[in-house]
Design the sequence.
């Protein structure tokens, strides 16, 4: 397996920065049907998770305990064959605040970079933990979108 590289944004004037992510030895691909995965998905409010074709689910473990879940695959955007998308499903509540989301995100970026050229990330404006994860990975905020819905 090679080291994944994505353009991470612009820094230091106009110099483009590339970042490499190494595999995390405590993260491994998982089958969504496993009982421990189902329990974690339920804890994270994602019991109805359905992975798209070609997506891979990964779990971060502490010993034998599954503590965080994420997935990656093609973005699904028209013309986005070479663009990766990552679903940071989450870190189980008892394990938050320890940098585990950051570790899992870095691992997923590396795995996604093995098959894709680009990654665009997004999160809600109020998801401060995910925004910190993006910043730590070298991402740069390029824009903000507003979504409206009828009550």
Sequence:
């Amino acid at each position: 397996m090679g080291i994944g590289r994505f353009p991470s944004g612009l820094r230091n004037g106009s110099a483009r920065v590339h970042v490499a992510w190494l595999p995390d030895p405590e993260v491994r691909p998982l089958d969504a049907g496993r009982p421990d995965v189902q329990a974690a998905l339920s804890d994270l409010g994602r019991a109805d998770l359905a992975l798209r074709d070609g997506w891979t689910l990964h779990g971060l473990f502490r010993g034998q305990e599954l503590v965080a879940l994420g997935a990656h695959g093609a973005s699904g955007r028209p013309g986005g064959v070479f663009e990766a998308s990552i679903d940071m499903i989450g870190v189980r509540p008892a394990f938050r605040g320890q940098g585990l989301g950051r570790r899992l995100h870095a691992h997923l970026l590396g795995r996604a970079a093995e098959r894709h050229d680009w990654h665009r990330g997004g999160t809600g404006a109020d998801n401060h933990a995910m925004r910190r994860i993006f910043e730590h990975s070298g991402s740069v905020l390029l824009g903000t979108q507003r979504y409206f819905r009828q009550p």
User: Anything to note?
Assistant: Confidence is low (pLDDT under 50) at residues 1-15. The radius of gyration is 16 Å. The CA atoms of residues 32 and 45 lie 15 Å apart. The helical segments are 35-43, 100-113, 128-136.
